[in-house]
């Protein structure tokens, strides 16, 4: 099958590329990630994705438009509902991949995001399935998460840059801000006391 693989980054693509090739699929990588900020981080991840593609001899299509303002506008609107920001982020990227796959004669699309134990796997799966129906292009699903550690090992062997946070500036805050974590813990405690 000719599959377009949406690549969130180089390291997360290591296992899915290995696995899909083992299954006999013909792959092309697709980098479209308007969620990555700030600009230097975006360029670093993009260059790493290119480095990875070269090392494993993978054709890679790149959309290198840096869309900070568009992302923030969408994210701040989406944040008014629980999980809205990530839902928007998955939908934007996966729909773009699905549309590209459909327009360019691929049999299906999938995404390296499905390897990550840190993403909302079921939300992404449902999102991709809905997009597949709406855009009339099959979504190739496999839960790549059992290969997470293999992917980490491969990325280390290839000496790829491994990013410390998901992508957007919100996730960067969540990763580093003690104040944010404290606030979240307090909110969680309040929620638990209300439901107990
Ligand atoms: S945390 Fe990750 S998935 Fe969620 S909006 Fe930010 S970049 Fe996208």
TrEMBL record:
<keyword id="KW-1015">Disulfide bond</keyword>
<keyword id="KW-0676">Redox-active center</keyword>
<comment type="similarity">
    <text>Belongs to the QueH family.</text>
</comment>
<keyword id="KW-0408">Iron</keyword>
<keyword id="KW-0560">Oxidoreductase</keyword>
<keyword id="KW-0004">4Fe-4S</keyword>
<dbReference type="GO" id="GO:0052693">
    <property type="term" value="F:epoxyqueuosine reductase activity"/>
</dbReference>
<feature type="binding site">
    <location>
        <position position="89"/>
    </location>
    <ligand>
        <name>[4Fe-4S] cluster</name>
    </ligand>
</feature>
<protein>
    <recommendedName>
        <fullName>Epoxyqueuosine reductase QueH</fullName>
        <ecNumber>1.17.99.6</ecNumber>
    </recommendedName>
</protein>
<dbReference type="GO" id="GO:0046872">
    <property type="term" value="F:metal ion binding"/>
</dbReference>
<dbReference type="InterPro" id="IPR003828">
    <property type="entry name" value="QueH"/>
</dbReference>
<feature type="binding site">
    <location>
        <position position="8"/>
    </location>
    <ligand>
        <name>[4Fe-4S] cluster</name>
    </ligand>
</feature>
<keyword id="KW-0819">tRNA processing</keyword>
<feature type="binding site">
    <location>
        <position position="9"/>
    </location>
    <ligand>
        <name>[4Fe-4S] cluster</name>
    </ligand>
</feature>
<dbReference type="Pfam" id="PF02677">
    <property type="entry name" value="QueH"/>
</dbReference>
<dbReference type="InterPro" id="IPR014729">
    <property type="entry name" value="Rossmann-like_a/b/a_fold"/>
</dbReference>
<feature type="disulfide bond" description="Redox-active">
    <location>
        <begin position="166"/>
        <end position="168"/>
    </location>
</feature>
<dbReference type="GO" id="GO:0051539">
    <property type="term" value="F:4 iron, 4 sulfur cluster binding"/>
</dbReference>
<dbReference type="GO" id="GO:0008616">
    <property type="term" value="P:tRNA queuosine(34) biosynthetic process"/>
</dbReference>
<keyword id="KW-0671">Queuosine biosynthesis</keyword>
<comment type="pathway">
    <text>tRNA modification; tRNA-queuosine biosynthesis.</text>
</comment>
<comment type="function">
    <text>Catalyzes the conversion of epoxyqueuosine (oQ) to queuosine (Q), which is a hypermodified base found in the wobble positions of tRNA(Asp), tRNA(Asn), tRNA(His) and tRNA(Tyr).</text>
</comment>
<keyword id="KW-0411">Iron-sulfur</keyword>
<feature type="binding site">
    <location>
        <position position="86"/>
    </location>
    <ligand>
        <name>[4Fe-4S] cluster</name>
    </ligand>
</feature>
<keyword id="KW-0479">Metal-binding</keyword>
């Amino acid at each position: 099958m000719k599959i377009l693989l949406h690549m969130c980054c180089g390291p997360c693509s290591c296992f899915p590329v290995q696995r899909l090739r083992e299954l006999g699929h013909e792959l092309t990588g697709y980098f479209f990630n308007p969620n990555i900020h700030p600009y230097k981080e975006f360029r670093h991840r993009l260059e790493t994705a290119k480095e990875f593609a070269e090392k494993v001899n993978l054709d890679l299509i790149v959309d290198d438009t840096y869309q900070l303002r568009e992302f923030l506008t969408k994210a701040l609107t989406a944040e008014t509902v629980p999980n809205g920001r990530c839902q928007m982020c998955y939908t934007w990227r996966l729909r773009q991949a699905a549309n590209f796959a459909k327009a360019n004669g691929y049999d299906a699309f999938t995404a390296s995001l499905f390897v990550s134990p840190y993403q909302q796997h079921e939300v992404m799966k449902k999102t991709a399935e809905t997009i597949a129906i709406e855009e009339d292009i099959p979504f190739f699903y496999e839960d790549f998460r059992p290969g997470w550690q293999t992917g980490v090992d491969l990325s280390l062997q290839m000496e790829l840059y491994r990013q410390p946070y998901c992508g957007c500036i919100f996730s960067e805050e969540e990763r580093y801000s003690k104040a944010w974590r404290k606030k979240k813990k307090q909110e969680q405690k309040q929620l638990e006391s209300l439901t107990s």
